[in-house]
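Chain A, query sequence.
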Amino acid sequence: MASLRAALLAEVHPGFDIERMAVRLSDFIHRSSASNGFITFFFGELDRRTGELRYINAGHNPPFVARRTGGFAALGTSGFPLGMFPGANYEPGTVRLDEGDTAVLFTDGITEARNGAREEYSEERLRGAVAGHPELAARELCRAVLEEAHAFACATEPSDDITLVVVKRNPGLGSS
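Chain A, predicted structure.
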């Protein structure tokens, strides 16, 4: 991961191309990892003025956008995980965040957290937790969702990494 971070920092500069960046990162991981080594990866660029989110999803759990008006939009996969195949191509996706919409990026450590009955927290519960707090700012929503997932898992130690990123487009303020 440290090598990927360093390679990413080298790739992202003014005028960089998101597709080319993903191909170069994937080839780097392929060359520098074991033959069965790969990394799921999500990278997004948000235009705070227009609300357009342009992204590459290399095999990562599909993030979603909770619409202020109701419903969800999944940010689908645009290619294989980084490092899986040399020369893999990545097609960027785009979605527009309207005022009040919330983008949610997460790792499977959240959705696969289990309770005492071995039930998974699930993406459905995650979506419900996000939809249940439309009034919260991004930071508070993130905290509330993590607390709910932790309570669901009966406060047990997580078996996987837990990462949650929440971006909410506020009326007249860009993003928070």
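Helices lie at 2-11, 18-32, 108-111, 122-131, 138-152. The beta strands are 41-46, 52-58, 64-66, 72-74, 93-96, 102-106, 164-170, 174-175.
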